[in-house]
Design goal:
single chain, 157 residues, mainly alpha, Arc Repressor Mutant, subunit A, 7 helices, 3 strands, 9% strand
Length: 157
């Protein structure tokens, strides 16, 4: 094992993982800079896009579609509600979220622009490379869904 924690068996996999993490971080940074002109962050755009697709959507269902905590979802919804981009309607014990007219207009404007921007990150790949990468990412994702975190005591033995 070298000083970075790489062994001959795991080196390539770790390098792939590091590249994926760095790409994700850079993509978010670029998206935040791009979306700043529209007054939203990448996380807010993602939330608004999920509301647009699934509306009316419960707060719990919305949290399942996002990569932030339930507390983060609640905090962000409060902010988007103050900006009159979403509305929450209580129906018995469940809060349902929908876009307001202002939110719909924003997403009609931003969605195609942001989609083109995100897609442009893959312009360096030809169509065959994109298809292959998509297939590999599906395979990796499905594998990750079947994995469980090992118990620390099991790893020590």
């Amino acid at each position: 094992m070298d000083r970075r924690g790489f062994s001959d068996e795991n080196k390539l996999s770790l390098l792939i993982w590091l590249r994926m993490v760095r790409f994700y971080q850079r993509s978010n940074q670029l998206s935040n800079e791009h979306l700043q002109h529209f007054g939203v962050t990448a996380a807010q755009f993602d939330m608004l896009a999920q509301v647009l697709i699934h509306q009316p959507v419960s707060q719990i269902e919305l949290a399942e579609h996002l990569t932030i905590s339930r507390g983060g979802v609640s905090h962000m919804l409060t902010r988007l509600e103050k900006e009159n981009l979403i509305v929450r309607n209580q129906q018995w014990k469940v809060k349902y979220i929908s876009l307001t007219e202002k939110g719909k207009k924003l997403m009609e404007k931003v969605m195609p622009i942001q989609s083109d921007f995100q897609a442009s990150l893959f312009d360096i790949l030809d169509d065959e490379e994109k298809k292959r990468m998509h297939e590999m990412m599906i395979k990796i994702h499905r594998h990750s869904l079947q994995m469980e975190v090992p118990n620390a005591s099991q790893e020590e033995s």
